[in-house]
Amino acid sequence: MKPVGVAIVVCGVLLFNAGCHKKATVSAPLPAPPAPIAVPAATAPVRQVPAPVPAPPPPAEALPSVAQPAQPIKPSPFPPAARPAPAPARPAPVQSETPAPTPMPSLGVILSADQKKQLDASYQSDLRQANAVLNGLNGRTLSPGQTDTVNRARAFIRQAAQYHDRDLATAAELARRAKVLTQDLAGGSK
Fold first, then answer.
1. Quick one: pLDDT band at residue 95, thresholds 50, 70, 90?
2. What is the pLDDT of residue 153?
3. Per-domain residue ranges of the chain
4. 104: which DSSP letter?
5. 7 CB contacts (<8 Å, ≥6 apart)?
6. Is the separation of the CB atoms in 176 and 118 below 8 Å?
7. Buried b (16+ CB within 10 A) or exposed e, 61-98
8. Closest Cα partner for 167 from 111, 125, 128?
9. Dihedrals φ, ψ of 59, to 5°?
10. Closest CA to 159 of 145, 173, 146, 180
């Protein structure tokens, strides 16, 4: 039931109960009204402001009737409030023997055979050079900055090895970065 309907029902029950019961009333004498305050005549006269007059109700012709069509509602210029997406329901586990789906091919650059050979040669060359410099630094005392550079170069080499089989272009770029870092080390450690 709507809140307005509940309020009407409650008011009706209260009015009905008020009329059905006789109540004993005790009348007490009303206190005497307070004595008027005398205002000296020398004060400025008080202006009385007329009470605001309520506007008359509109004529019956101005009120829309039930038979008149409602005016269309203009769309709001503001975007609707974002609502959170409902949580997807969990599917029931499937007990049938369906084959596992084939993995989606990774998105990457499609390379020709010559391009693959070039990238692989670059990858191998850069890794050899980076590893040679890193092996030459073993046993040397390095500054904190050089130690950080060695760690970053080793991280690039690990990442390049991870990407070699699935994204040769990325692997070659990571190997190149490792080589550049180690060249800086080789130039700065001498």
1. low
2. 93
3. 113-135+142-189
4. P
5. none
6. no
7. eeeeeeeeeeeeeeeeeeeeeeeeeeeeeeeeeeeeee
8. 111
9. -65, 160
10. 173
Contact 108, 161 (CB under 8 A): no
Instruction: Compute the half-sphere exposure of residue 107: CA atoms within 13 Å on the CB side of its CA.
Output: 0
In the predicted structure, residue 107 carries a pLDDT above the cut 60:
no
Q: CA-to-CA distance for 188 and 190, rounded, in angstroms?
A: 6
Tens digits of per-residue pLDDT, 32-61? 666 666 655 555 555 666 666 666 666 655
Amino acid sitting at position 99 = P
Structure tokens at 87: 């949580």
Nearest by Cα to 173 from 112, 110, 126, 107? 126
Residue type for 36, please?
A: P
